[in-house]
Amino acid sequence: MDRILIMGGRALHGEVHVSGSKNSALPILAATLLTAEPCVIHSVPDLSDTRYMLEILKYMGAKVELLDKNNVRIHAETIQSVAPYDLVRKMRASVCLLGPLIGRLKSCKVSVPGGCVIGPRPIDLHIKGLEALGAGITLEEGYVVSHATELHGARISMGGRYGSTVLGTDNVMMAAALAKGTTVIENAASEPEVVDLAEFLNAMGAQVSGQGTSTITVEGVDRLHGAEYRVIPDRIEAGTFLAAGAITRGELIVRNVVPAHIKAVTTLLEETGYNLSYGPDWIGIKRPGPTNARDVTTSPYPGFPTDMQAQIMALMAVTPGVSVITERVFPDRFMHVAELQRMGAKIDMEGATAVVKGVDAMSAAPVMASDLRASAALVLAGLVAGGVTEIRRVYHIDRGYEHIDEKLVKLGAKIERKPE
Ligand code: EPZ
Asked: What would the pLDDT profile of 339-392 be if each residue is shown by its tens digit?
């Protein structure tokens, strides 16, 4: 296991290129199981999560050929239907295998992914949607088992207590693509990554419409063909680098980004006092003068993304004023609070709300990464804390950020990666 050492206090300057979206690549890689023909996927970020998904696809019987570290050819000519616990347990996103396996094979046996540090990760909405298509699902010894003979279209609501479900919408869309008849998904997730998956399915010959709205319609087809597709840029990585430019009071240009995909984040940064500039595929940030803390409430797209909550908390921890941060998607997603407090942040928790009082400076401390975005928040805090911050269990960060330390060093950060 690696650790990283960050010498804080250096403003970041220059340009950074954002990788392909992890949360788009994972369901798209799974969707290649829907066809017996080869697919080529471009801009796949080189992460432990994507490498893990490719291992799972190989285990399921697909031929996987890395054309280079970000481009892969997958040929799932014949696949088997069982995804065992020791494969699935390490990556919760493996749940998005359910849709393609049930769509292609009509039956499957996929281990139920465990929870994780950001909270229990129920799949009741996934099961409700797949059952509505006729998947005949039972839970047997920790496995989701489907006994379908054929799938039929249905009208399904994917809304839950915390809004819609991204991977649940993905699973239903993928299975419905090969069902007989029309499926209408109401209260569908409208995240850009769901749109990206729908576009890939259509490139394979599916008939999906309404993606990006809360009602997605899928006309089932008999079979899907192979396709070549490029994954959208990672909007959360882009937001994380904008926050890095902000917190270090530097001046950055973040390239390979769709500005519309992170409007909630850029709007918040502008309201806080940062000066942002925009191009078709880039965003610039600099700090012209004083900044003031702002309140943040996370919600499904196009609201403020839960995946940026920890990073923004790190920024507000050193922004003058008080920021009330409310987490409405994953109410337990506050693993970063205790670690930020160790670095001097003034944060009071009230249920799923954090009251953050900006401090003049944070101080370096040895801290522990816990989940992907909490770890990113600790990196941001380390960039601005006085002294050398040591972050352990850096594998959490490597799950979702492609060589984040190397990209930050190119922007002027003083970071060293060492074996733990
Ligand atoms: C996706 O997870 C992302 N992961 C998450 O990013 C992201 O935080 C999340 O969407 C919300 O935007 C991937 O795309 C691989 P949900 P997903 O189902 O689909 C509840 C990251 O850091 N729910 O939209 O699993 C659930 O508990 C990761 O990159 C049910 O109640 O999230 C949560 O409170 C973390 N029943 C809310 O819905 C269900 O059946 C949203 O979860 C499913 C979900």
From this structure: 999 999 999 999 999 999 999 999 999 999 888 999 999 999 999 999 999 999
SS3 72: strand
331 lines ligand 1 (CB under 6 A): no
Element (H, E) at 182: strand 182-186
Whose C-alpha lies nearest to ligand 1, atom 1? Answer: 166
Q: Would you say the CB of residue 162 lies under 6 angstroms from ligand 1?
A: yes
For 59-170, strand residue ranges (E) read 63-68, 71-75, 82-83, 107-111, 137-140, 143-147, 155-157
Residue 63 neighbours by CB distance under 10 Å: 12
Q: Tell me how far apart the alpha carbons of residues 296 and 322 are, in angstroms, rounded to a whole number.
A: 11
C-alpha of residue 163 to centroid of ligand 1, in Å: 10
Rounded distance, CA 383 to CA 269, Å? 18
Do 2-19+233-419 and 22-220 show the same overall fold?
yes
Amino acid at 295: D
| Cα–Cα distance for residue pair 230/221, rounded to 1 Å | 23
Structure tokens at 106: 């009509």
Distance (Å) from CA 352 to ligand 1 centroid: 16
pLDDT for 65-105, tens place per residue?
999 999 999 999 999 988 888 888 878 899 999 999 999 99
CATH architecture, domain 2-19+233-419? Alpha-beta prism (3.65)
Catalytic site includes residue 39: no
Listed by start position, the domains of the chain span 2-19+233-419, 22-220
For the Cβ of 21 lying below 6 angstroms from any atom of ligand 1, the answer is no
Q: Is-above-0.90 flag for pTM?
A: yes
Check: CB of residue 34 under 8 Å from CB of residue 106.
no
Could you tell me the sign of the dihedral formed by the alpha carbons of 134, 138, 139, 141, in that order? Answer: negative
Q: Backbone dihedral region of 189: left (phi > 0), alpha (psi from -120 to 50 degrees) or beta?
A: beta
Q: Which atom of ligand 1 is nearest to the CA of 300?
A: 12
User: pLDDT above 70 covers what percent of the chain?
Assistant: 100
What's the distance, Cα to Cα, between the start and end of the chain in Å?
Answer: 5
Look up the CATH number of domain 22-220: 3.65.10.10
Q: How far apart are CA 101 and CA 122, in angstroms?
A: 19
The neighbour count for residue 297, using CB atoms within 10 Å, is 15
373 lines ligand 1 (CB under 6 A): yes
Provide the pLDDT for residue 114.
66
